[in-house]
Amino acid sequence: MKKLIAPLVAAVFCSAPALAQETFKIHHFVPPKAPPSARFLIPWSDKVEKESGGKLKFQLFPAMQLGGTPPQLVDQIRDGVADVTFTLPGYTADRFPRTEVFEVPFLHTHAEATAQALQDYYDKYLQEEYKDYHVVLLFTHDGAAVHINKPLNSMDDFKGLKIRTANRGGGVFLRGVGATPVGSPVTELQQMLSKGVIDGVLLPYEIVPAYKLHEMVKNHVTLAGPQPRIGTSVFAVLMNKKRYDALPADVKKVVDANSKRGIAAWAGKTWEEVEQGGLKAHEAAGNKHQTIPASEVEKMRKAVQPEIDKFLAELSRPGFDAKRAYADAQQMVAKYSKKK
Q1: pLDDT digit string, tens, across residues 31-58
Q2: Under 8 Å between Cβ of 179 and 216
Q3: What are the extents of the domains in the chain?
Q4: What is the pTM of this model?
Q5: Is 73 a residue whose pLDDT tops 80?
Q6: pLDDT in tens, 285-295
Q7: What residues contact residue 162 under an 8 Å CB cut-off, 6+ apart?
Q8: Distance (Å, rounded) from C-alpha 143 to C-alpha 302?
Q9: 21-140+232-274: what fold?
Q10: Domain boundaries 145-231+275-337, CATH class
Q11: Are strands 22-28 and 162-165 parallel, antiparallel or unpaired?
């Protein structure tokens, strides 16, 4: 009898399933060494893997390795082509209008404050807008400077220039000061600059070295005052809703602990830190950093205000007053800016 039981016991243990493991594909558009990948997605995925006890694993596919274009990433996540993405809602204009409020000029101060304010704004305004996704985090970079060959010392210097912007909020500013906004993903900038399609770009300092743009332009321009950057862009880390919903409760708990308010301040602070690498790259190239004086910035604010009003009217929907949301967002950002 014992001779029969021993093999049966062994067979039961050998046929027992191994530790269940889910593998999620992370698809995004930036190079693997660029800050969104190296300083955010990789540390974040490593942390979640470790805290899940190996039950959740991630495979990274940078630089659109799974195909498609950056504006298609939101559809790829919704449709299950990939499981997680880092992208910009602004790449799909008017699809996330409530989110675009945070990209309107003269709202953003610095990344840590704006990232935390976005969590308050999400709770109040954005849950319906992202109902087809599981939102890991909405946050921003540290704000866009103008990277260009021509010196910019006044509002008049912008007139007639063609400047790339990642979103419509940047276009609001550029139209207000007399420039022509050109929308495009960051992956197209080198070719556009080299062919003269654009005169300059709106970008944070941190991403410029990844595309060697500091070798293509010589001037980097910010504004005097408490809002030195020309607006910002909202980043979204989105997860396929069905894949998230199917996770075991303990793994969901790990993901949730590393989402939204749990990581917003860290993400914002990280984006402030990575700006330094970009600044050093520009200095090493001998480029010039300019600050447009406060008197000219005040002229810009007045010139841009009609464009802001027009854009907020375009963003408004039944049940959503974008002008009121913009005022709320300003207060949210101010609350966290005071803590800096």
Answers
A1: 998 889 999 999 999 999 999 999 999 9
A2: no
A3: 21-140+232-274, 145-231+275-337
A4: 0.90
A5: yes
A6: 999 999 999 99
A7: 179, 180, 182, 197, 198, 199
A8: 20
A9: D-Maltodextrin-Binding Protein; domain 2 (3.40.190)
A10: alpha beta
A11: unpaired
